[in-house]
Design goal:
The complex is a heterodimer. Chain A has 15 helices and four strands. Chain A is mainly α. Chain B is built from nine helices and twelve strands. Classes of the chains: A mainly alpha, B alpha/beta.
Chain lengths: ~400, ~260
């Protein structure tokens, strides 16, 4: 491989990103504007503002001597400044208030909640002895941002109540994705959205890659490059590098803008490094989707349309929009790579999970596998059907 | 290259000059589904020769160039460039050739200089040599003052000139110039002609396709006229004119086919 050639092609692609207004907007300006707009609208500039959500709690756990667990849980929920707790004696009354918009969510604590917690602590390493249970949460579907924020906050408080404040990576009787306590009283809706915005920005690489390939194909540039000694592997390596670099620029810009509007993520230097790594890998996935799009599209205009086949599911099922969706749509999110990017960044920056936690490693593995498959498939299809 | 062959008996030295073939096309046929673009074409172009491939639109000129440059595979027949079989040794062929496509293929968001340097880099040229050659070619094509402007802002003629420079910046042994002067104003065309003549002086092998008969007469050592994918005449412009008692190559084509070469334009 001739690295001078690769470097020349990377330089060419980066110049395209800066010099072509449409590409510059999609890749750089759009994420910047989006972050600023969302940060200002839903964040806490300077950390002085906070949003509160009204939660109705129906505590059905009265089994002595374990009910102390549920009381502690409700107490911890009340301690979170972001939540205002209203106790209800029955689910029906609570539901009536939810329908009328008096509360934004209802949390049903089951009768066996305390027993479940206790069974865990009696045998923390033997799941067969646990009594599994489920908390029921009803959300106001008319309030998108409340529904986004409330579910993760409750998960955090639950984790802190049941398992303590230390990150935990063992199986549990109550399934929660939160490995550590988040200081809920300092969080805003934007804190929950920010990880998804990183993924959201990179998704549009699919469109720019597809447009770039179809335009170059239409203008005869791919054929022209094919008459030079440049090998397909050199060409594709250049594409991969330039798009990974672009993703890194996006992450840095989104971070900078988010910081400007008061976003102060948890995590150490390793967390930030991993965020850059996972976004670079995710960029490759979108290069693959871009190549598949370019194979199917006959023109740059068609590429723009077809790119949305890959963009829309990733956007709605796998980024900051996902929390507002129905449970089935949220389950479908597990089939799009952006879900795992968002989940990893949420774990790193919101939950404060260490980079070696199983959740993050699983997310990283899934994103890596998806990226390799998408990239190889893209190269294969474009090489066979897309070059002319 | 001229090679000397000494024949027996040694005391009777007979020197025969044989020119080395740069391009050999042997019974080339290229079909696209049911359309035959090139039909049994056989041709040899000698090293250092400036060969004109003439014919109307759709005659098979560009298809022939695309097969020679490895972009298309022959349906039947074979082609070799610089002694290498294009199908079997494409990498070696790509090191030797420079291709100027018929439609300008340039990166409009790059400047003229950046386009030229990019293609020099793709041919792995040393930096110093690339800069020197780029400066030289931009000067020859009168593009020095516009070299830092983006090609997207260029006029059609300027884009064509950059298109040509991009094909030749790496100083290829063999150049395929596919209608390099189409749409150019007379002044630009003249500059390109002078440039192509210089290639000839440098002993480069050039295949030039063109619609312009006066261009072929002015530049080419030999011309091959193709129509419907078949070679219908081959020789020097003078010999062809003489053979058909024609004033120019256009008349030769009319006599051969009964129609004008550019009527389909």
């Amino acid at each position: 491989m001739n690295f001078e050639r690769v470097f020349s092609l990377v330089k060419k692609d980066l110049k395209r990103m800066i010099r072509e207004p449409a590409t510059l907007f999609l890749i750089i300006l759009f994420p910047v504007i989006l972050t600023l707009a969302f940060g200002i609208s839903f964040g806490a500039i300077g950390g002085t503002q906070s949003t509160t959500y009204q939660i109705g709690v129906v505590n059905m756990d009265s089994a002595e001597p374990y009910q102390q667990w549920s009381q502690n849980f409700v107490g911890n929920l009340a301690d979170a400044d972001i939540l205002k707790i209203q106790d209800y004696s029955s689910n029906e009354t609570a539901q009536a208030d939810l329908i009328q918009g008096r509360v934004q969510a209802i949390l049903l604590i089951p009768v066996d909640f305390g027993q479940s917690c206790n069974s865990f602590w009696n045998a923390p390493t033997d799941p067969s002895l646990w009594m599994n249970t489920t908390l029921q949460l009803y959300l106001d579907s008319g309030s998108m941002f409340a529904t986004q924020a409330i579910s993760p906050i409750i998960e955090q408080v639950l984790a802190a109540t049941v398992y303590g404040t230390q990150p935990i990576s063992v199986p549990r009787p109550i399934q929660i994705g939160s490995p550590s306590l988040v200081q809920s009283n300092k969080l805003t809706a934007f804190d929950y959205m920010a990880p998804g915005i990183f993924a959201y920005a990179a998704i549009f690489l699919t469109m720019t890659v597809a447009q770039s390939f179809t335009t170059d194909r239409e203008n005869g540039l791919l054929r022209r490059i094919n008459t030079t000694p440049t090998t397909p592997s050199e060409f594709m390596t250049a594409q991969a590098i330039s798009n990974m670099f672009t993703a890194l620029i996006q992450v840095a810009l989104v971070f900078a803008m988010a910081y400007l509007v008061g976003y102060r993520p948890s995590g150490d230097a390793a967390s930030f490094a991993l965020a850059f790594v996972i976004m670079s890998i995710f960029a490759l996935c979108n290069v693959g989707f871009g190549l598949i799009t370019a194979t199917l599209a006959k023109s740059p205009g068609a590429a723009t349309g077809i790119a949305f086949v890959f963009i829309m599911p990733q956007m709605f099922l796998g980024t900051f929009v996902g929390f507002a969706l129905s449970p089935s749509a949220q389950a479908a999110g597990k089939f799009v790579p952006s879900y795992y990017v968002t989940d990893a960044l949420t774990s790193l920056f919101l939950r404060g999970a260490p980079v070696s936690s199983p959740t993050i490693l699983l997310d990283l593995s899934v994103v890596s596998i998806c990226s390799v498959i998408a990239l190889l498939l893209g190269i294969l299809l474009f090489g066979k059907y897309g070059k002319t | 290259m001229i090679k000397e062959y000494i024949f027996w008996p040694p005391n009777q030295k007979l020197v025969m000059t044989v020119k080395e073939a740069a391009i050999v096309i042997d019974n080339l046929t290229k079909k696209f589904e049911d359309v035959t673009a090139v039909d049994g074409l056989s041709l040899t172009v000698e090293k250092g020769e400036l060969f004109g491939l003439l014919g109307p639109n759709g005659a098979g000129k560009t298809t022939t160039i695309n097969v020679l440059s490895g972009l298309l595979k022959p349906t039947t027949g074979s082609v070799s460039v610089g002694g290498y079989e294009v199908e079997k040794e494409p990498d070696e062929v790509k090191e030797l050739i420079g291709v100027c496509p018929q439609d300008t293929a340039v990166f409009s968001y790059l400047t003229g200089r950046e386009n030229v340097e990019l293609f020099g880099n793709l041919h792995a040229m040393p930096k110093e040599k690339l800069k020197k050659k780029t400066d030289e070619l931009l000067e020859k094509m009168s593009l020095v003052s516009d070299a830092k402007r983006r090609v997207g802002k260029y006029s059609g003629g300027m884009r064509r000139r950059i298109n040509l420079i991009m094909a030749l910046v790496h100083d290829p042994e063999i150049a395929f110039l596919d209608e390099p002067t189409v749409g150019m104003d007379p002044q630009s065309r003249r500059a390109v002609w002078d440039f192509i003549k210089e290639l000839k002086k440098q002993n480069k092998t050039v295949i030039l396709t063109t619609h312009y008969m006066e261009e072929a007469e002015e530049l080419c050592d030999r011309v091959g006229i193709i129509d419907y994918g078949k070679l219908i005449a081959l020789g020097t412009p003078e010999k062809l004119k003489s053979k058909f008692e024609a004033k120019n190559l256009e008349e030769v084509f009319i006599q051969l086919t009964g129609r004008r070469i550019r009527e389909e334009l």
